[in-house]
């Protein structure tokens, strides 16, 4: 074909594509030959011009649309032939500069169309850990920086499609650094408020006396209020949040805007519950006052939701419930039906009434709540001579067992049993008198000699069924239970549940279920039946820690080792006897005596278990060991001192093979509580400073794995319940990003106390440094306790327990929460649950 003919044919094709008058304008002569070069491809496949336009737009070399591109390639003649500029235009886009951020931060991607008309634009991710883009189909998208353990680059592309279907793109990157505690540490304080970092806000959610149904009015807070079966109890403690579906009362584990909050009411501040404190009556207390104090104990189940004005509880929700020392309960597991549980109320040993002195908690994967009975023994009365009566009527074993649990011959907390019965046959008060009546049946079915054996258990509650009966899970043993926290659940592996026995020189326990975990059980509707499956059969173990950093789990199984009827210190009769008297079994097995084992928490990423050892005033230089290595004096600025291990520490262990079924572990001490001014060589072993020094760690919790705070390098939260450091600061909440077992080394210190001096070698983790910061300081005379978050990690719930506990109506020592707004007030203090959120809506702590 002649060149002129080929060029003419090309022009004709282009003008058919780009200019309708092309043929007329050229006055092309008629030809007698058709070479087949006509447009018969009617598909929407891209034309080369489209590709050229997209390419040139993306590189941003030409800014005049398709006409400029054509001119660059073919010259101006082509445009003259078409008689007008090309109607098809691409766009020019930018994706913004590269971004550097850290885990948990909100990242905003800002793209723009700098030229041309866009019919659509948006963002897509091209590399790195997958994130969820909010508003990805717009020019401004956002996402939460994912959990990473090393600096990680994520790639993103912004694209725009012109009105003519031409796509232009631009790329950018976001580099995410590992998690940091991105807040300024809160200073130590003696003020009467809850102080949190700048950028955070506090909302008081649920206070002592708040009504939970329509049967009672607002709380007067002057001592005249009653009917605490329909009000919030006192001394808010361990707590769990359970998501609720947006409508109805069914669980939704992913809901972060509506849920059921379940919390313990451990004890009471007696002075503030009555108009002028408890009535002083010679020989007997008023019945109404006693019943009020009893009902202030137990558990609250309340519905809460986040609305346009923030978080609030629903006072009349059908899910709201109080569980008190009077609520019917049932026993399950190996001790159910044992004669050790026989009482006048429960002659078969399978039923009980209520729960008391509930401290820490546990959240089960199948959406139930575990509440744990701690200092229950002090509530029971035993008259002088009861030990002798027990020896004569039952056996000497009974007195030995009671002594091991602190059930001495005494009047009982608050002298409840001096009050008259509310009515004939009403034994709600009488059940707290465990004194033997030798004229009644020796098996205990005629009195309440065995009532103390009905307490000291882990109790499971279904938060979604107000009509359900709480179950006491006896396979987990009887002790001063703190929390009961489940380790990581892995399909086909038997889950483990970790528990501390909170008293001086007591033990750490682990229960391993007999049933391997099945993931489908997490979404069951018969939740207490799943509790039966995992919590009623298995093996309870006690921990023995060696100086070399190793440890063993010793089984509490009747017939094994010293746990037999031949044991000289205590003759065990059967497995029910072993579990009911787990402390005696731990003694026989040689378990390691610890400095008040309190809350447990499990790292959701690596499975390591952390345990707070709050303090131990009876620790001496001679009784220190590698796991409890300090004995010293801590002087107060106001005069006097505390001694033993007054500031406590946090220990951690890693199961052999990283499996919950392991019988061995390794351990070290994550952090030692101490004032920053104390001797770093022998006391302040973790090199704490003014931003993170603390004393008496108590509450302990890891962020949920459902958000980035609980992934990668998870955040751990430490709460304090202190008497040693309260001359300097109120109790506090600290955030930590802990390392792992073995990240430090071996350390030898010199202890000196009461004239005795000796060296002790221990295993200490890497100094926390800036990975431990004070996040919150509470009001006067309080304990910080109880903690959980919404699944998205953007709200955390914390309990403020017994503010102003040392005061009375005539001399109030705290006005919190009334004082939260201004720091002052006039009202009586109230234990309460607070909600902490970020003003920018971000993830707490990061």
UniProtKB/TrEMBL annotation:
Transmembrane stretches in the record are: none
Lineage, top-rank taxon, reads Bacteria
For region Disordered, the annotated ranges are 622-651
**InterPro entries with a match to the protein in the record:** PhoX (IPR008557)
Q: How is this protein named in the record? A: PhoX family phosphatase
The organism is: Sphingomonas insulae
The record lists the lineage as: Bacteria, Pseudomonadati, Pseudomonadota, Alphaproteobacteria, Sphingomonadales
